[in-house]
Amino acid sequence: MAFQDNDKNKERKPRGRPRAFNEKTEQNTIKSLDRAMVVLEEVAAYDGASLSELSNRLGESPATLYRVLTTLAQHQIVETKDSTQTWHIGAGAFLIGSAFLRRTSLVETSRPILRELMEITGETANLGVEKDGHVLFLGQVETHAPIRAFFPPGTLSPLHASGIGKVLLAYFDTARLNRFARSGLERFTPHTRDTLPALEADLDQVRERGYSVDDQERNTGMRCIAAPIRNALGEVIAGISVSGPTSRIDETQIEELAVEVINAATRVSQAMGASADQPPKP
To answer: 151 with 137: CB under 8 angstroms?
Structure first.
């Protein structure tokens, strides 16, 4: 027996969202939840923060913040260390964040290639994408050496002072690059490209040679070499890199390491559907 819809003229609502989903009004915002997300972002920005520190930074009363933090802690989104009375991101937040990593095959595909790259070069291998004007690190395989770079998954780094960041910036169109530069190019070391002309000249080199070099531009004494990862359309969607101290990565080794990084990026790109001879594009 077939069932008939006796109300065909009624407007169908998209599944999973209310009729007013596209309306950007305050009525669609839960203020308490919004406050909780702001608190969570602040906790994530620091390696441990006390209640009074969070109160000062956010301009909220300690009592209000404590209620928010306690609620988040019940879901293991944050946790507190009794010995230091500081709040930290909890295991629950990691589990939720892992869902983002599972959403794309990029992380899974890159993992064995990152490990091989680390073994070949002896330096820490990294995977990152662009996120709101920053590099969002999705994966890392650390070197066995005692002194090493450390960018755990979820870490954000400035695009203009990062090897992966400059690989991504190199394939921004002119308008997008100008918008990014207007937001400010913070100077971290004397080597940082903190003006648009200096950055553009560097990005020209990135496109010409196929890799970028972060030469102590974010942290003095550290170098990073990165290459772009492309999808089936040839679009640059991510970057892969090796990073380590200048005592191990000196200027004479950059080109040799770049060959290995480009090879790793090409392998990931091909796994994502890109052809081997396809040039990168925005």
So the answer is: yes
- Going from N- to C-terminal start, the domains of the chain cover 26-94, 104-271
Answer yes or no: pTM beyond 0.85: no
What tens digit of pLDDT does each residue of 162-183 get? 999 999 999 999 999 999 999 8
Q: Do domains 26-94 and 104-271 have the same CATH topology?
A: no
Q: How far is CA 104 from CA 30, 54, 138, 162, in A?
A: 29, 34, 11, 23
The model's pLDDT over 112-130, given as tens digits with 9 standing for 90+, comes to 999 999 999 999 999 999 9
Query: Angle formed by the axes of helices 62-74 and 31-44, to 10°?
Result: 80
| Architecture of domain 104-271 in this structure | 2-Layer Sandwich (3.30)
Query: What is the Cα–Cα distance from 51 to 9, expressed in whole angstroms?
Result: 55
d(CA 222, CA 124): 12
- Reported as a pLDDT band with limits 50, 70 and 90, residue 241 is very high
Is 164 within 8 Å of 135 (Cβ atoms)? yes
| One-letter amino acid for residue 253 of the chain | Q
The CATH class of the 26-94 domain is mainly alpha
DSSP-based three-state secondary structure for 62: helix
